[in-house]
Amino acid sequence: MIKLKRIYDPYRNEDGYRILVDRLWPRGVSKEKAHLDLWLKEIAPSTELRKWFGHDPEKWREFEKRYKKELKNKPELMQQLKDLEKKHKQVTLLYGARDAEHNEAIILQHVL
Fold first, then answer.
1. Which tens digit of pLDDT belongs to each residue from 85-94?
2. Whose CA, among 11, 16, 55, 103, lies 20 to 30 Å from 27?
3. Is 28 left (phi over 0), alpha (psi -120 to 50) or beta?
4. Residue 37's Cα: distance from chain center in Å?
């Protein structure tokens, strides 16, 4: 099972295997506080796409379309996530965005 969680939310054992899917390290979060098992920054949207989107909900549908296109060009990373999901009972994709409804982790979860 894949859950989503903001990295600023408290760590819980129930999170299982924790993967940060942001390209940039979240501000104010220490490596210890993050409790990460993996930082898969390569799966995040490209810098160009991230900057274009700017977390603007008006651009969400187009962002989703463009990000899915980018993910199609990363089959080895997608397979890595699928393998981790099979290996661990629980996988939590972590993101830093304030908007829980418009971020790359949601798209990743749906694609997986």
1. 999 989 999 9
2. 16
3. left
4. 13
Which residues, including other chains, have CB under 8 Å from residue 41's CB and lie 6 or more apart?
20, 21, 22, 23, 24
Helix (H) or strand (E) holding 82: helix 75-87
Residues 7, 18: Cα–Cα separation, whole Å: 9
Tell me the backbone φ, ψ of residue 79, rounded to 5 degrees: -65, -40
Query: What are 71-83's pLDDT values in tens digits?
Result: 999 999 999 999 9
pLDDT in tens, 30-85: 989 999 999 999 999 999 999 999 999 999 999 999 999 999 999 999 999 999 99
Give the span between the Cα atoms of 21 and 25, in whole angstroms.
Answer: 10
- Helices 104-111 and 60-72: crossing angle in degrees, nearest 10, is 50
